[in-house]
Amino acid sequence: MKKLPAIIVSVTIGLTVLAGYFFQAELSTVLSLIVDWGILLAGVAGLIGLGYLAQYHLTRLMKREKGAFFSLITLLVFLFILVAGLTLTTQNPFYRNLILNVQVSVEASFLAVLAVTLLYASLKLIRTRGWTPMSVGFLISALISLVLNLGVGMTESGTVLGELVAFWRRLPIVGARGILLGMAIGGLIVGLRVLLSMHRPYGEE
Amino acid sequence: MAGLICPECGAENPDEAKRCQECGALLIEQSQRADEQPAGLPEDPLDFLAQADDDLPGLLHALKHEDDQSPLTDPPGGEESVPPEGDEHVDSSEEPDAEETLPEWLIRVRQRAQEEEDSVGEVTQKLVVAQDHLKEDISTSRHENFSSWIEGIRDEDGAKESQPAEETAKKAETGAEEAPSEDEGWLTKIRKMEGKFIEETDSEIKDTDGDSLLQWLVALEEGTEQPEVLDEATELADGAPVDVPADDDEKHIQQPESVLEGDELEVTQQMIVPTPTLQAEQPEPPLVDVTRSEQLQADQLAATIADEKAARAVVKSRKAKSTWAIRLIVAVVLIGSVVFSLFFREPAVLPVAPMPSQHEDMISWIEELPADARLLLVFDYQAAYAAEMALVAEPVLEEVIHPGRQLSVLYTSPMGGLLSQALLSEISADRDVPIDDLGYHPFSAFTAYQAGISAPAAWVIPSLPKSGRTFLADDYEGIILLSDTFEGARVWIDQLSALMPGTPLNLILSAQAGPMLMPYYDSGQVSGMISGVGEARNFSAAEGRSGAILIRWRAYQTGILLMVTLIVTGVLFSSGQVNDEGEVNA
Amino acid sequence: MNDLIWGVVGLLLTIMILSYLIGDNVFFRFAAYIFIGLTAGFVAVMLINKILIPYLVTPIVTGGWQQWLWMLIPLGLILLLVMGQWSKFASAGSIPLAYLAGLTAAVAVGGAVFGTLIPQARAVIEAFDPAGWYAVPGRSWLRVMDAVVMLVGVIGTLSYFHFGKRRSTDDAVETSNPPRLMRALGKVGQVFIGITLGAVFASVFSSALIALIDRVLFVGEIILKLIGGG
Which H or E run contains A33? Predict the structure, then answer.
């Protein structure tokens, strides 16, 4: 009985949104509002999550745990960016440069470290997984894709070589299509379970 | 000599009193009933109890007299009862007063105790048998309450036992005033534990022929009474409760060793209370049905816990050091080769290569755009891919952004606004193209759905607040999506394919998103797509705009070649370590 | 000058993060924690400025009483969501979460069915259209082979994911034992999945390599600027 309001809300909203795929003109105003409020709720949920992050670091700082200094750094930067963003706005040149330079530098550097890590991991590709059909296909496809990325094998489509290269280029589509279909089937099943209230991720079952 | 003892309150009354002076209970009927006891011995000693009168206080008092003491109890182990010192056989004829107060059955019991072995024990045996017939439902709390009560009485008994029997007998003789109080206390306690006995009114007393303890014992035998008191009472006097076999055939009864010596009151207590008692049996643990899978899971959990607690071997640090060294060497080689290619080599000259179909379709679509086309740009990538997206998107946007066209920009990542401004400012700086910033729209799925349903409403609900996020996608000639992951782009493709299948959708992607999104181009859901620097190089060369890519192309080629080399090296080195089954040896 | 200062900031952060290649160190952690704090703060600013204020505060402040009444619904949902963070009122948070769950599930179902399942399945079937085989003369055998490989590969890939796995019963755990044909198709699917993942691996490395090249270029430019005196 306690869960009945939540189930009613979930099913009603879900069915209304699903109906929007068939009756766009009739339901567009209501659907826009539903999506607006959904994004509003998700935004508040995001803010609550950020609050938990701040609370975690604050707790670590108060308890003087290992890494409390870094938590202090995090909290100070968080507060500074938050206050500056609310006061200066995101269009302020100083604020924009600060965010851009820090974000782009750090994130791109993380990706650069990934490049080295992938390079090192390529040494142990077979050693880790052994000779299985999947690992053999993986290796051959990676090698050919890398070579094709260099611009090698760019031939006219009329020739046999060109057709074979084009055929090989299409091979990853086969597996990708199967993976996409599998993901879609999984998403459909889970979504239906939620809409039919067989699975309630929003409360205790 | 003490007078009549009230069966209700235990108060002492004169012999001629008909009613109790304290509580008003009838005394005459009880005395008359006692006189009318049949002389003959019934076959079953317990019949005495069935016909027991309510003259228990008088009985107790009588038992207290030194002359009336008789060996009524059986010592433990079935030994012959040893009469307390100074006790004499009771002869009702020698004591006319005792005859008046003592019921016939008691006299017979005494006689039997003198003549027979273990006669009183039989009584207690029968009581135990009666108890065995009853179901036990003893609550521990009541047991504990009773235990404390028993403890109290036991303490009193123990105090009494410590006194010499003669002193106790003298006290019983002389302490006439004390006897009623002792009887009263003991009886009151019993009656309080009984509960309803205390609450009984005079009328109830009339109807029930008194409320003697003996009647209660009789009722217990008949199964009309609760066994709690009886069971608790078996812990009376000394010692712990004695185990009693549940088998009815075994009538072995153990009685506490501390046979009351020379104390009629204690003897009476011993007699009344069935000595062997059932030790409060611990309730059996409830049976739990466990399925095999649950048992397996429990075993697995136990094994996991044991495994967690087990000592573990220390990881050898040599292997970690070698891993670190190899990784450092690889990093140095890669960064060094990139530096060399960037700064010490001439930029590459890119040949024009045949374009794949997805590029051709995108170029066709761009060329077919009207001069005043309205386009929607969706920025859906992170700051890490800013450099790559700039390299891939610049050639396309250079062709798309022309004076006269209108651009609307929305971004689904927090950094999207800053990244879009940085990208578009370089391209449209010298071109008078208005850019409409639609703002930050998180959660791509919801935004894509809302973009798709933004059709003109067929009807309007009055006073319904308008959504501030309407961007009517039907007005756009095309949508260009810039994404770094296939998941973000897939969501847009799903929603726009379902809700706006007529609006062309073109993708500008990071290299990592390309392979998983090709099926959408293959199925016609996407008009055109370009992913990664490799394809952008072709596009740029075809369009003649390849400056930024040229600078990086050598370094890019070097890195790719290094990766190919290491993959082949890893395969060659690891093939010797693989066993016949295709598994790699550790 | 401003650009140089920001460049130096970027240079220091880049070197701090790249120092992870040598090993985990305090500089790397310092830069990482700065990044976490900055990202969290920026996301909070964006959520407040771009979501809360335009879509919650502004309608309440500027709207009429009818707007007020309508805005009570999202206000109530937000209040329930916030209350749900306390264990005492945990059940209160189930309604706004149910709202989001229903919305997400419906969007996911609609997108999956109309955006992927139907079009992709149709693409597999339409590959067997004879009209498409003969669209390019002389290469029809390639189209046929392409269609067959696509069909077998997609079925094999789906077979590999064991959609028909049975559940375990109370008395025994039943292991998955698909028919022999399914197992054979699963083996074929493994190959195609491996091919796809190999292409993805190469593409991911390509993106990461471009990021590394860009970082090295950036560091070089800043150093040259510093050496050159700005």
Answer: helix A24-62
Record: contact B516-C200, CB cut-off 8 A: yes
Distance from the C182 Cα atom to the nearest Cα atom in chain B, whole angstroms: 23
Least confident of B401-415, B537-551, C83-97, C210-224: B537-551
Find the residue in B nearest to A159 (Cα): B354
Quick check: C85 contacting B, CB < 8 Å? no
Q: List the chains bordering chain B where 3 or more Cβ pairs fall under 8 Å.
A: A, C
Fold observed for domain B357-455+469-545? Rossmann fold (3.40.50)
C75 touches chain A (CB under 8 A): no
Q: Which residue of C has its CA nearest to B450?
A: C107
| Ranges of CATH 3.40.50.720 domains, chain B | 357-455+469-545
Q: What is the pLDDT of residues C144-153, one digit of tens each?
A: 888 999 999 9
Domain total of chain A: 1
Closest to B260 measured CA to CA, from B115, B113, B408, B468: B113
Residue C60, C-beta contacts closer than 8 angstroms, at least 6 positions apart: C67, C68, C71, C75
- β-strand pairing of B12-13 with B374-380: unpaired
Q: Which residue blocks in B500-546 are alpha helix, DSSP H?
A: 514-522, 532-543
DSSP class per residue in B553-582:
HHHHHHHHHHHHHHHHHHHHHHHTTB-TTS
Sign of the CA dihedral C54, C60, C62, C67?
A: positive
- Note down pLDDT in tens along chain A; length 205 residues: 668 889 999 999 999 999 999 988 888 888 988 999 999 999 999 999 999 999 999 999 999 988 899 999 999 999 999 999 999 988 899 999 999 999 999 999 999 999 999 999 888 877 777 788 888 899 999 999 999 888 776 666 667 777 778 888 889 999 999 999 999 999 999 999 999 888 877 765 4
Q: Are B189 and B146 in contact (CB under 8 A)?
A: no
β-pair type (B4-5, B528-531): unpaired
In a domain, A179, yes or no: no
The Cα B79–Cα B532 span in angstroms is: 106
Name residue B13's beta-bridge partners.
Answer: B4
Range of the domain at C220: 127-167+174-230
3-class DSSP state of C85: coil
Token output for B537 = 């190089």
ipTM comes to 0.92
A170 within some domain: no
Residue C119 lies in a domain: no
Nearest CA in chain A to B535: A149
pTM comes to 0.68
Tally of domains in chain C: 1
